[in-house]
Amino acid sequence: MGGILAVVSHPDDETFGCGGTLALHADSRVLCLTCNPRDRKVELKVACKALGLAESIIFMEDNVVPSRSLIKRVADVIVAERPRIVVTHLPFDYHADHRATYEVVKEAIEWASHTTTYEKSCLVERLLLMEINTLIPSPHVLVDISETMVRKRAAVEAYKTQLVKFSWGYYQNFSDKKAELRGAQSNCAHAEAFVEESLAKNGPFYEAKATRNLLR
Q1: Which of 7, 88, 117, 182 is the most buried (most CB within 10 A)?
Q2: Cα(34)–Cα(156) distance, rounded to whole angstroms?
Q3: Whole-angstrom Cα distance, residue 19 to residue 145?
Q4: Which pTM value belongs to this model?
């Protein structure tokens, strides 16, 4: 409770996008919205174990379609897990499921805050958007994952059904080079990059909506 919740479209998104960051925070959880084919469920569990995470949460959707029911289910998880930080996909990602997941998560964070819907509503503090194959032009947040890069590599290797698609090691090489690039930008060996998206806090469910001092 109170850590990081990564909400992803498919098994492997959590590892490629923010695996090193999740591994730095032992109380992180992963909510995966789709799992097709079904054997990727086992790969996700193996990857999360390699990252040192608690058991993942999986919704067996065929694909991600923003709907009131899916938004409610994700909001339910947010309220139950009570994360301080939610990580999800970029709204300009190349993959349609990733873009749809972003829309679902944005709405779910809003609904999770509603005291009229939940007796113990949850106010998420930060929303971070990760990069997988679509790179962020100018990251807001860079996380040093040098000490967890070995675990991230082990988690990547868990996804045999995906790695076999490219015999020349595309996924492994891209993951390593991306981490090296972000490491070079942040003066460390390996890093992960994120966009931080502001969360609107002017609604009636937020008690503190204004500030008198921007330096606090």
Answers
A1: 88
A2: 18
A3: 9
A4: 0.92
Determine the Cα angle at 185 with ends 3 and 24, to 5°. Answer: 20
Tokens encoding 35: 């799992």
∠ Cα 174 65 98 (to 5°): 15
Rounded Cα distance, 58 and 143, in Å:
26
The β-bridge relationship of strands 4-8 and 85-88 is parallel
Looking at residue 31, what DSSP letter applies? E
Strands in 126-130's sheet, in edge-to-edge order, are: 57-61, 29-34, 4-8, 85-88, 126-130, 191-197, 141-144
Q: How far apart are CA 117 and CA 123, in angstroms?
A: 13
> Over the stretch 84-120, which tens digit does the pLDDT of each residue have?
999 999 999 999 999 999 999 999 999 999 988 899 9
Give the list of residues 6+ apart from residue 66 with CB closer than 8 angstroms, or none.
100, 103, 104, 107
Whether 12 and 45 have beta carbons less than 8 Å apart is answered as: no
Question: Domains of the chain by range and CATH?
Answer: 4-197 (3.40.50.10320)
Torsion from C-alpha of 17, 52, 75, 96, nearest 10 degrees? 20
- With beta carbons less than 8 A apart as the criterion, state whether 141 and 194 touch: yes
Helix then strand count (H, E) for the chain reads 7, 7
Burial of residue 74 (CB within 10 Å: 0-12, 13-18, 19+) is buried
* Bridge partner residues of 6 (DSSP): 30, 87
pLDDT at 174 over 90: yes
